[in-house]
Design goal:
Elements lengths: L1 H17 L1 E11 L2 E7 L9 H8 L4 E4 L5 E34 L5 E34 L5 E6 L3 E6 L2 E10 L10 H14 L12 E2 L1
Antiparallel strand pairs: 1-8, 2-7, 3-4, 4-5, 5-6, 8-9
Length: about 210
């Protein structure tokens, strides 16, 4: 009898183990992001006017910086026009009539009919255009000695990608079809408890090292 119970218990364990599997999942410790790393024109700080013009060519214009130096202005101005059109057409027509008893010009009886009709058409055509200025600029501030001490630009920003941090772990996934064992009350009850206790639960000490990507 003892051996039979042991065999029955071992059979249930093997049965339950065969109805479950280890499934890998990923834990996200840190989402990837971007960090501002400066502007690509910052490298011109400390360079002379000659060095700047050799790489950037002749500026579009110059102006005083208010401190005895000047500003080399490089700009690209574009005017962009966007338009939208709306067109709608509506047309209706209707006809109706009536029939009355009467007589013709000879005095014989006949059916006289009166028909009426109406129609209308509406056309709408509306358009709208919007123009806007798009300007890209780089301003190099030059000191009285002819050396660049600051740069202002509205494009050319650089960003450094910070990778995300992840970890792969395992959890146990129990086959819900095993709940059909409820048709066999003793085994079904045990399987139901096993299912609720184990399904989707992380497996202890199954997580790997944290990696970046």
């Amino acid at each position: 009898m003892k051996h039979l119970k042991f065999f029955f218990g071992a059979l249930i364990i093997v049965l339950f183990a065969s109805c479950s599997q280890k499934v890998a999942y990923t834990i996200v410790h840190q989402q990837p992001s971007q960090e501002f790393a400066g502007n690509k024109f910052d490298e011109f700080k400390g360079k002379t006017v000659n060095e700047i013009m050799r790489e950037m060519s002749v500026p579009n214009r110059e102006m005083e910086d208010g401190a005895g130096g000047k500003i080399l202005i490089y700009e690209d101005i574009k005017f962009v026009t966007t338009s939208s059109n709306t067109h709608s057409t509506h047309s209706t027509s209707a006809s109706y009539g009536s029939a009355v008893a009467g007589y013709n010009y000879r005095g014989n009886p006949q059916i006289n009919s009166n028909a009426y009709g109406s129609s209308s058409t509406t056309n709408t055509d509306r358009g709208k255009s919007v123009s806007e200025e798009q300007k890209k600029y780089v301003n190099f501030f030059i000191n009285p000695n002819g050396v660049c001490y600051d740069v202002k630009a509205n494009y050319g920003d650089l960003y450094k990608r910070i990778p995300g941090k992840y970890q792969t772990c395992l959890r146990r996934e129990v086959n819900p079809l095993g709940l059909l064992w409820f048709l066999v009350p003793p085994v079904g009850l045990v399987y139901g408890i096993y299912y609720l206790a184990m399904d989707g639960k992380p497996i202890k000490n199954s997580c790997g090292n944290i990696y970046e990507e």
